[in-house]
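Entry 12.
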Amino acid sequence: MIKKEMIAMLLAGGQGSRLGVLTTKVAKPAVSFGGKYRIIDFPLSNCINSGIDTVGVLTQYQPLRLNTHIGIGIPWDLDRNVGGVTVLPPFEKSVSSEWYTGTANAIYQNIEYMDSFNPDYVLILSGDHIYKMDYGVMLDFHKSMGATVTIAVMPVPYEEAGRFGIMITDEDKRITDFEEKPENPRSNLASMGIYIFSWKVLREALIAQSEQPNLDFGKHIIPYCHGKGEKMYAYEFNSYWKDVGTLNSYWEANMELIDIIPDFNLYEEYWRIYTKSDTLPPQYIANDSVVERCIIGEGSEIYGKVYNSVIGCGVQIGKNTIVRDSIIMNETTIGEGCEVYKGIVAENVEIGNGVKLGFGDEAENETDPHIYNHGIATVGERSVIPDGVSIGKNTVISGITVADDYPQGRLESGRTLIKAGDRR
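Predicted 3D structure (tokens):
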């Protein structure tokens, strides 16, 4: 029988609904990040940098781009005869068939996959956070404490603790209690959704709790293990970690990459971030263009002026166009004489000439103010914006739009313009 000390199970099936139109056609872990990467590249790179060579990636929502991106795992050196990366979608079974209904249910449905490696330990990860962590150090902590469950935690301000699962620990970091999104938190150690389980303990807990609807780690598995008296410890992590679950946190995390001294450094030799890279020509920066404090992806052509922005691969920015404080994703074309301010423009978008994006006074978004806020103008992938229109802040556009969709040539701040269909 194959024997692995620790395997990783990477939960990558989430829709990421708080990212709005960015995840209409693609799973959140497959959303572009940092010019050339996708969000899932970060936990996958952490795995191979930590010496973990067996990773199960659990997919569900809109998995096509994610599956294509991962392939057989070559960019992460995870194309192995034994182990490597395996994409694990829900599948038909002889007795019953169901979608993954919760984080732990997804793991439960893949017990046979994990059994096939007979691991001592199983590492549970989310596919939608930006951070660098050596999981080997966390495993050493798990072993040294004689733990059966170790939960990675991060200190957060007490005023924000109510948004997280909070761990209460003793002086030895043993978890004595925990609270899910408490109103009056007794601790500020927030769960990062990163767990190491001794496999026998996890297997028994999954089977014992398998009938729970929407089986979840925070709601079911962790309380079950605690109730059984398992030795549960908190592993404190104090480096950069970002949940890019909202448009504003996604925008902020991209902008932080281009700080003079970034909190999250993409350029460290000893902890590389790997990704699937298409064979593209180098960037082209025209003679009279301006580029200041930006990331520019391969194959992009810049004829205008770009400031403080993250530009993906294969992007074209026309003459006399100004882009500021924006994220422009792969294969998008922006025409001549445009002005883009604090925009998030998804992949394969076509913006005409003379377009203004992200202008005017702020107004609350009319349909989804909890998603489209902080003054960001958002354009969904494969959308088309016609020449000469002006688009306000907290707006969202998706689909092939035409001049008639813009009264007096404007889409006022706070408006939503979503049309069926997109460019093929």
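Annotation: The mean pLDDT is 90. The first helix runs from residue 41 to 49.
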